[in-house]
Amino acid sequence: MAMQTKSLFTTKWNDASESKEASYRRLSVPALVAFILGVLSFVIYFSVWFFFIAAIGITLALVAVWAIRRSEGMLFGIGLAHCGLALSLTSLVSVSVMWPYYTYGLRLEGNRFFRIWFDALQEDNIPLAMGMSAPYWERPSIDDKEKWWRDQYANEWKLRGIHNYTSNKLVRTLLALGKKADITYYKTLLSTVGDGKDTVISVYAVTYTSELGEKETFFIKMTGVRQFPTKNFKSAGWLLEPSPSLYVPEEFR
């Protein structure tokens, strides 16, 4: 039986170098960071100001993919980079689609709240109008308006508060006009989300017929804030903050 001899030419001289190169393979740091940022990018749903997390995550993911492909096997982690890229893109795209609908709904809800205030004054419902300037969880029940008025007259400070409220020129004008005023939505100046609350600022046009029989119009700026109570996070509610005020649109200045 012939013995097999190991020829010098059958030795794989690159075995040692291949194992050495394999031991040098390392995880791409940009790929790992891109994956972490991709996971964190979903905080953009709480505030759009966090969009930079997704933007940085996308940039690092692309850098990682480019570096791994040029490393000739020295780097690995392209799966993490792809996953981070997908997560960051998903966050940005979904928010860019959802955000217009959310702000549109926010404006509608705020404007419905403003209409309640106008209707309250046109119907001479001072308890309701005054209560809208306080958080809903602090508003007294006004199911019985007669009882509410008796409580106010029995307290000097509460009665003084009513006097101050109705002495406001804008409030007094709306009370005097009543149903004679035609109140229409004019435009929204601002709708923002942040700091745990939603804010809507809208302008309304109030048109009425003067004693001379001419149509007169003035504008009112309404600022509504929707927020959660400090301790009870079951639901959010609106309040007027600050009080409505006269406003002159830029196109009429």
Q: Brief description of this entry?
A:
By secondary structure, the protein is an alpha+beta fold. It is 48% helix and 20% strand.
Task: Provide the fold topology.
Layout lengths: L14 H9 L2 E2 L1 H12 L10 H20 L4 E2 L1 H45 L3 H6 L13 H9 L2 H11 L2 H9 L4 E13 L2 E13 L5 E13 L9 E4 L4 E3 L6
Parallel strand pairs: 1-2
Antiparallel strand pairs: 3-4, 4-5, 5-6, 5-7
Describe this structure in words.
With 253 residues, this protein is α+β, with helices and mostly antiparallel strands. The chain is built from 8 helices and 7 strands; from the N terminus they run H-E-H-H-E-H-H-H-H-H-E-E-E-E-E. The chain has helices spanning 15-23, 29-40, 51-70, 78-122, 126-131, 145-153, 156-166, 169-177; strands at residues 26-27, 75-76, 182-194, 197-209, 215-227, 237-240, 245-247. The strands form 2 sheets. Strands 3, 4, 5, 6 and 7 form a 5-stranded antiparallel sheet that branches. The chain has a two-stranded parallel ribbon with strand order 1-2. A hairpin with a 5-residue loop joins strand 4 and strand 5. Helix 2 (29-40) packs antiparallel against helix 3, helix 2 (29-40) runs parallel beside helix 4 (78-122) and helix 3 runs antiparallel to helix 4 (78-122). The longest helix is centred in the middle third of the chain and has 45 residues, at 78-122. The chain is elongated, with a radius of gyration of 33 Å. It starts with 14 loop residues before the first helix and ends in a 6-residue tail after the last strand. The relative contact order is 0.10.
